[in-house]
Amino acid sequence: MRRFWPMVRKEFIQMRRDRLTLGIMFGVPVVQLLMFGYAIQTDVRHIPTIVVDESRTPESRAIIQALENTGNFRIVAYGDARGALDDAIARGRAQAGVVVPWDFARNLGRGSTATFQVVVDASDPLSSQSALSAAAGVAQVENLKLLTAAAGRATLPVEARVRPRYNPGLRSPTYIVPGLVGLILTMTMVLITAVAIVRERERGTLEQLIVTPITRTELMLGKITPYVGVGLFQMTAVLLLGRFVFDVPLVGNIGLLYAVSLIFIVASLSLGLFISTLVETQQQAMQLSFFFMLPSILLSGFMFPREGMPQAFQWLSLLIPLTHFLKILRGILLKGVGVGPIAPQILILCGFAVGLIVLAVRRFHKTLD
Amino acid sequence: MTDVAVDIQELTRRFGALTAVSQLSLQVFRGEVFGLLGPNGSGKTTTIRMLCGLLEPTSGSAKVDGVDVRLAPELVKTHIGYMSQRFGLYEDLTVAENLDFYGGIYGLTGAARRERIGEVVSFLGVGGRLGQLAGQLSGGWKQRLALGCALLHRPAVLFLDEPTAGVDPAARRNFWRAIHDLAHSGTTVLVTTHYMDEAERCDRLGMMSLGRLIALGTPAEVARAVGGQTLEDAYIILQEKDER
């Protein structure tokens, strides 16, 4: 392995001189974190809402107030007729509409069911979901209030107390930031090494290199080593920004986190190298990397829970290293677990790292044909 | 037979239906400057690449410095230096960094590496440009640097594939002076070219046409064998024949 260090040195100097790539590698974590942290919220609040109050009674105003108090609805307009409501939703000025019929107070007083309608724009499933549950909740609370009063009780007979462990505020950043560490590493590490071998081939430097006694293993390991440092830096940047800008609690063992991340970084870099041995041009390398990245984002459980996917896709997602790394990240960072609970995932990542690097080395030949 | 540095027997390489090199047999002696001459597509580059272990021969055999290129292509690489047609060094590294990298890759370390790089730098006169990026060098300086990197491990045989393409005449003359110096100190040089003045400077020539060796000997012998007064006549006769 004595030719390994000259290779590392050379890659490091080239990396340092390539200002654009360097800027992207260090800029990506920051931009992504701010984007995901600020812009992407899965808990949708303040849905623009139009209200048509036909009843115009204290009772109807109370129910509208109760809806607004949930924080999920933001009343942007009052309409006189249902036509105005349909029009506002169709034009996108409102995403939800509330109609309180003229007989609302009368039905309430008579003891028959008083209905109010909540219309939602379900072309956006996340916000319609949050509107529907908020509306159902308001009705539930009103019912309980009225029924307990009618039964002459001061307290509720049964109450469920839900305690959201590990993310008490159910905040998006707490869920997103640990996953983002994995996503950013996948994106940059795979892409960087995917172009590594083909770039040398395209520039004509590979021919001169493979006519030397350097072994395939020395060449491959030398190529990925400098980027391990880049990966660790990216990870540190995301964790620090997550902790101090988005207030994400980082409770676990940081030493363990770095050790496991190192395995994931090597696995990702090796996957990139493997891609590099499959393609002829840098452009193909990028296409193949993106082809791999999309399932990584969608199937790994980064944004959508894997439990909701059909069985076949759940199995498919096990072939993606990020799937296993996400479990580790959330386990260590949010739950503060030790090696025990995440041992299977750690072993799988080790398998990926070793398997992919062996595959890349075996695929690479020191010949021109 | 220790005076044979390159021993080629019936060497053949096919790319699909195309036979790039066909049944090539020749010997290059130690300390000789041997030229492979021929039009584009005559199989010169394919031959050199097979001898360097970069391409696998379809059939036949070749020994370089006593090492069989088919049986031990990696071992061959420690015995040879190679310069490809296209500049193959790192343009984003400086002259010194390229030398240092190739010194390391050829297994030189510490003081031995520094000393050897110093020797090569003074032999090729690149001392004034050590801090310059290789990509900013002119064609002539790039050639010298490439030769320098190929020499660091004192190879027994040097393969040069059209080393002076795109280099000005003065730099070409200097380059050939260096080649002859190397040959005098015992290095075997196998060079491809299609410059006639360069071919004239070789000790012996092999003339190739459509993958076959059609003449072998001193420049004068080769010219006569092909049927021209001078080597240039011979070359043109050959090229016209190929194009028909």
Record the SSE blueprint:
The complex is a heterodimer of chains A (369) and B (244).
Chain A lengths: L3 H14 L1 H21 L7 E7 L4 H12 L3 E7 L2 H9 L5 E5 L3 H7 L6 E4 L4 H27 L20 H23 L1 H8 L1 H6 L5 H29 L9 H25 L3 H18 L11 H7 L3 H15 L3 H25 L6
Parallel strand pairs in A: 1-2, 1-3
Antiparallel strand pairs in A: 3-4
Chain B lengths: L3 E12 L2 E12 L3 E5 L6 H8 L7 E6 L2 E2 L4 H7 E4 L11 H11 L4 H15 L14 H13 L5 E5 L7 H16 L3 E6 L2 H5 L3 E6 L2 E6 L1 H8 L4 H13 L1
Parallel strand pairs in B: 3-8, 3-9, 6-7, 7-8
Antiparallel strand pairs in B: 1-2, 1-4, 4-5, 9-10
Helix pairs in contact in B: 3-4, 3-5, 4-5, 8-9
Describe it.
The complex is a heterodimer of chains A (369) and B (244). Chain A has helices spanning 4-17, 19-39, 58-69, 82-90, 104-110, 125-151, 172-194, 196-203, 205-210, 216-244, 254-278, 282-299, 311-317, 321-335, 339-363; strands spanning 47-53, 73-79, 96-100, 117-120. Chain A is of the alpha/beta class and 369 residues long. Chain A has a four-stranded mixed beta sheet, sandwiched between helices. In chain A, helix 3 (58-69) links the parallel strand 1 (47-53) and strand 2. Chain B is 39% helix and 26% strand. Chain B has a six-stranded mixed beta sheet, with helices on both faces. In chain B, strands 2-1-4-5 form a four-stranded antiparallel beta sheet, covered by helices on one side. In chain B, helix 3 (95-105) packs across helix 4 (110-124), helix 3 (95-105) runs parallel beside helix 5 and helix 8 (219-226) packs across helix 9 (231-243). At the A-B interface, helix 1 and helix 9 of A face helix 2 and helix 3 of B.
- CATH class assignment of chain B: Alpha Beta
- Globally, the shape of chain B reads globular
Molecular shape of chain A: elongated
Could you give the count of β-strands of chain B?
Answer: 10
| Rg of chain A, Cα atoms, Å | 28 Å
Q: End-to-end span of chain A in angstroms?
A: 26 Å
What is the helix fraction of residues of chain B, given as a range? 25-40%
Order of strands, main sheet of chain A, comes to 2-1-3-4
Q: Which residue ranges of chain A are poorly predicted, with pLDDT under 50 across at least 5 consecutive positions?
A: none
Average of the residue pLDDT scores of chain A? 89
